[in-house]
Specification:
This protein is an alpha/beta fold. The protein has two domains: about 1-170, P-loop containing nucleotide triphosphate hydrolases (Rossmann fold); about 175-265. It is about 40% helix and about 20% strand. The protein has helices at about 20-30, 45-55, 70-75, 90-95, 110-115, 160-165, 175-190, 190-210, 220-230, 235-245, 250-265; strands at about 1-5, 35, 60-65, 75-80, 85-90, 100-105, 125-130, 135, 145-150, 170. The strands form three sheets. It has a six-stranded mixed sheet with strand order 1-3-6-9-2-10. A two-stranded antiparallel sheet has the order 4-5. A hairpin with a 2-residue loop joins strand 4 (about 75-80) and strand 5. Bound molecules: adenosine-5'-diphosphate and magnesium ion. Adenosine-5'-diphosphate (ADP) binds near residues 44, 45 and 219.
C-alpha cells in the first residue's frame, strides 16, 4: 500500500478556481469530512497538499486500490523480533496526531473500508479499533478527505449513498483557460505565450472526449508537455510524449490526435 506522510513547511502552489479554499477551511473548522470529485490530473491532490500546509497539519495520503482493506487503514498486529506488536495504519495515525487523512480514489477500496469510515464521518468522530479494543476520539484537528473520479462510470464502483451523504462534496474540473495558462507556466517555467497554444489544444481535445479517448488531456499532462519544451525537447516529440501517447494505444486514434493538434496549432 502506498502511504505518504508529508509535513510541508512551504505551502505548495495552488491557484484556486472558485471558493474551494474557503470551503475546505470551513469543513476543517466544523470537523466535517470532504469529498473531492473530478477527473484525474485536475489539481485535487495539489489542493489537499496546499490546504494541509496552510492549516499546518500533517497529511497522510493513501492511494486506494482494490485490495485495500480496513486493516490497511486502521492497523494490524505485526511480528517483530518474536513479539507481536500493534502497528497503527495511516488513518489511525492521522486520528491520533490530529492530521489530515486523504483517501485518494476511495471508490477503489474494499467495501469494509466504509465501515471504519462511518463512525468517523458522523458527529461521533470516533475510530473503534476492534483488534486492540481501543476507541479513539478524533481531535478537532483531524480531517478526512477523499477523492474519486466519477468519469469512469463504473457502476460497481460508486460510493453508496449512505457513505457519500456523510461528506461535504466539491466538484473539480480543469481550470478555465487563463487560470490553466498561469498554472502550467508557473509549474514548468515556460512563458505564458508558449503555454497558451498548449492549453488551447487541451481544451479542444477535452471537447472531443468520449469516442476514442476515455479522458481528456489533464492539467498534469500539460505541465509535463511544457516542462519538456522548457528543457529543449523538440516540439513534435514533446507533444507526442505528453499529449498523444498517454491518451491512447491505437495507431488510428493517435494519428487523429496528431492531426487535430496540428490543425489547432496551425
Ligand atoms: N489549481 C492548480 N494550482 C496549481 N497547480 C495545479 C492546479 N491544478 C493542477 N495543477 C498541476 O497539475 C498537476 C496534477 O494535479 P494533481 O493535483 O496531481 O491532480 P489530481 O489529484 O486531480 O489527479 C499538479 O502537480 C500541478 O502541477
Ligand atoms: Mg491525485
Amino acid at each position: 500500500m502506498q502511504v505518504l506522510r508529508t509535513e510541508m513547511h512551504e505551502i505548495p502552489f495552488y491557484l484556486p478556481s472558485g471558493l474551494e479554499t474557503q470551503l475546505f477551511e470551513e469543513a476543517y473548522r466544523q470537523g466535517l469530512p470532504l469529498l473531492l470529485k473530478g477527473p484525474t490530473g485536475c489539481g485535487k491532490t495539489r489542493f489537499v497538499a496546499h490546504m494541509a500546509a496552510r492549516l499546518g497539519r500533517p497529511l497522510y495520503t493513501v492511494s486506494c486500490h482494490d485490495d485495500l482493506t480496513a486493516a490497511d487503514l486502521t492497523g494490524r498486529f505485526l511480528l517483530k523480533g518474536g513479539e507481536t506488536l500493534w502497528s497503527d495504519g495511516p488513518l489511525t495515525r492521522a486520528v491520533r496526531e490530529g492530521g489530515i487523512c486523504y483517501l485518494d480514489e476511495v471508490v477503489e477500496a474494499r467495501k469494509d473500508v466504509t465501515v471504519v469510515l462511518h463512525p468517523l464521518t458522523d458527529d461521533r468522530r470516533i475510530l473503534p479499533l476492534e483488534r486492540t479494543g481501543e476507541i479513539l476520539t478524533a481531535p478537532p484537528e483531524f480531517m478526512l478527505v477523499a477523492s474519486y473520479n466519477p468519469g469512469y462510470q463504473n457502476i460497481l464502483k460508486t460510493l453508496k449513498p449512505s457513505t457519500r451523504q456523510r461528506f461535504l462534496a466539491l466538484e473539480f474540473d480543469f481550470p478555465p483557460m487563463a487560470a490553466e495558462v498561469a498554472i502550467v507556466a508557473a509549474e514548468s517555467g515556460l512563458t505564458e505565450a508558449r503555454v497558451r497554444p498548449l492549453v488551447l489544444v487541451a481544451q479542444r481535445l477535452r471537447a472531443m472526449k468520449g469516442h476514442d479517448i476515455e479522458e481528456g488531456v489533464s492539467t498534469r499532462l500539460l505541465v509535463y508537455c511544457a516542462t519538456l519544451l522548457r528543457a529543449g525537447v523538440p516540439f513534435d516529440a514533446a507533444i507526442r510524449a505528453s499529449l498523444v501517447e498517454p491518451l491512447s494505444d491505437e495507431a488510428e486514434v493517435k494519428q487523429g490526435l496528431i492531426e487535430a493538434i496540428a490543425a489547432i496549432i496551425g
